[in-house]
Structure formats: C-alpha cells, structure tokens
Write a structure and sequence with these properties.
Number of strands: 0
Number of domains: 1
Strand content: under 5%
Shape: globular
Largest sheet: none
Order of helices and strands: HHHHH
Number of helices: 5
Distance between the termini: 21 Å
Structural class: mainly alpha
Amino acid sequence: MEALELFVTQPVLVMFTGKYPDPSHFLALVGNVKLLFILIVFSWLVAGLGEELVWRGYFLNRIADLLGCSRAGWVATIVAANTVFGLAHSYQDVTGILENIIAGILLSILYLATGRRLIVPIVAHALTDTIDFLVIFSGHYPGM
C-alpha cells in the first residue's frame, strides 16, 4: 500500500492538484529518534488499532447496515465512509485527503476480502504509517 501511495497515487494526484500532501505537522520528526519512537508507537496504537476499530470496525458496518449489505450497498458504504475518512485528514491538504480516501478504500477492501478480520487493516494501516514516519525521519518524504 505504501509503495502504491508513494510511487503511483501520490505522483498522479500531485499532477492533478499541483500540491504534495502537507507534511509540515511532522517537520520536527526529521532526524529526531525520540520523536520517531513515539510516533511509531502512536501509529500502532492510535492510527492502526484506534482508527481501524472506528472506521472499518464500526462506521463501515453501521453505514452498510443503513445502505444494505448488498454488493451495491457495500460499494456505496466504502465510498461514503472513506470520503469522510479522507476529510478527517484535511490537515494534509487536498492531496493528503485524496490519498487517505484511496488508502481507506484499500483498507476496507482488505477488511472485507479477509472475511472482516480487522487485524489485517490494523496491521496494514500501522505499517504504512510507520513507513511514512521513517521516510519523514530520513528527510526524504516527497514535498519536504
């Protein structure tokens, strides 16, 4: 997922929006080992576990209950839930919002494709955020 984001979706989105995601909230991370450790723990507990419990574990299923659990209902659910998920990352600017919509859709597909095993999107989300933090730490995140 992270390779897809960094090497495919992000460059395509930047072509259309003219902007990279805004990493300015994480500038203090560059070269800061202590902050890297804190953010990696954060990425596993809050983003991986917490966000996936909320977005895939709860909201996705509640919206599906409202829209119906047919194939069309699930497609509408995935689009609706992940549009809101993307908007929740608005601090990353328009490209970051769009990237998070795409990532949320992929995490939702993983969740459903694995028989609603929430551990799969939890690990995938935490790993992608960990990789992002490592790239930011190194000072090589696109747009920095």
